């Protein structure tokens, strides 16, 4: 048992005292402080799939360029038919016997704008139950000779699940500078 010390008295170096006991005596009685909550940290940004975003951008650009498909020329016909479309309907489309209910003219637009307009136009037509539309893409005679919009329209229409068939319009409706598109009914794809 240790003797109580008088204020100002030091016993440093006394034999048998350990440093921890000396420290506790020097500090005196202590009380535990209440823990205060830490200030809220700024929220970390949600992780982004940057590689996925880059892959999608690359895929869109490859789609616009056409990838490995051969480019269509100005006078080439656009023609596509799903197997689910009856042959009689396909024949009527090719003859120009099915009239378009709406039309989209892409003349003078760049490829990016044309793609966005065409996607929105087809979605709107489908939403309103329109079964046949005409898209005027032009023949591409005023550029470098490659019909960019015509090729873009061809590739985009072939990859849409709501497009049953399309064929270049009859001469009186734009010929190879336009395409008539049959859309699936709203409940079916």
Automatic annotation (TrEMBL):
GO function terms (MF aspect): DNA endonuclease activity
PROSITE patterns referenced in this protein's UniProt entry, alphabetically: SMR (PS50828)
Location of the Smr domain: 104-184
Domain of life of the source: Bacteria
Pfam families assigned: Smr (PF01713)
SMART domains documented for this protein: SMR
Gene3D superfamilies, A to Z: 3.30.1370.110
Disordered as annotated region, ranges: 1-20, 28-54
InterPro entries noted in UniProt: Smr_dom, Smr_dom_sf
PANTHER family in the cross-refs: DNA ENDONUCLEASE SMRA-RELATED
Annotated protein name in UniProt: SMR domain protein
């Amino acid at each position: 048992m240790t003797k109580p010390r008088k204020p100002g008295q030091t016993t440093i170096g006394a034999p048998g005292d350990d440093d921890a006991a000396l420290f506790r005596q020097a500090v005196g009685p202590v009380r535990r402080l209440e823990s205060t909550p830490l200030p809220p940290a700024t929220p970390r940004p949600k992780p982004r799939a940057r590689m996925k975003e880059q892959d999608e951008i690359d895929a869109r650009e490859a789609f616009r360029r056409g990838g490995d498909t051969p480019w269509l020329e100005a006078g080439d016909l656009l023609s596509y038919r799903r197997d689910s479309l009856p042959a009689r309907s396909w024949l009527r489309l090719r003859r120009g016997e099915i009239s378009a209910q709406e039309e989209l003219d892409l003349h003078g637009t760049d490829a990016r704008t044309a793609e966005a307009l065409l996607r929105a136009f087809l979605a709107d037509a489908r939403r309103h139950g329109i079964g046949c539309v005409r898209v005027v893409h032009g023949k591409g005679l005023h550029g470098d000779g490659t019909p960019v919009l015509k090729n873009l329209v061809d590739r985009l229409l072939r990859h849409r699940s709501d497009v049953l068939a399309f064929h270049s319009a009859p001469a009186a409706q734009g010929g190879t500078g336009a395409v008539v598109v049959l859309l699936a009914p709203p409940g079916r794809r």
